[in-house]
Write a structure and sequence with these properties.
Shape: elongated
Helix content: 55-70%
Oligomer: single chain
Strand order of the largest sheet: 1-2
Largest sheet: 2 strands, antiparallel
């Protein structure tokens, strides 16, 4: 009688600290992209006359930028708190559950790749 061996690999895990560091880095990159976009929009709108509704819509980019910067600060504060035990492991699939961008999943998994900036989707400008 032959025995059946379980060949399934155990769930990959990542320490909470390492996960927070990776997520913080991703947000820092996104924040820098937001700032670049804001600068581009600022240059483009210098020659345009915008109505109040358009200005309010563009201000949402600034709100998004500030939100990302705030979350980065919060994550850095968590990482810097010596009272927290961030060495615990968590399953990687739980970390990237619901993430639609495969490049983000690859980064979180630590897989090799180009890790090039994530291409944006279609954008309708004006």
């Amino acid at each position: 009688m032959s025995s059946v061996m379980n060949t399934a690999l155990p769930s990959e895990t990542i320490s909470v600290q390492h996960a927070l560091e990776k997520v913080t880095g991703l947000l820092e990159t996104a924040g820098a992209s937001f700032l670049d976009a804001q600068n581009t929009v600022d240059e483009c709108t210098k020659t345009l006359v915008l109505c109040d509704q358009e200005v309010q819509s563009l201000q949402q980019l600034d709100v998004a930028t500030q939100t990302v910067e705030a979350v980065v600060s919060i994550l850095k504060n968590i990482l810097a708190d010596p009272a927290l035990d961030l060495s615990a492991d968590m399953p990687l699939p739980s970390l990237y559950s619901g993430v639609k961008l495969s490049e983000i999943v690859r980064i979180l998994k630590g897989e090799p790749g180009d890790h090039v900036p994530i291409p944006a989707g279609e954008v309708d400008l004006f």
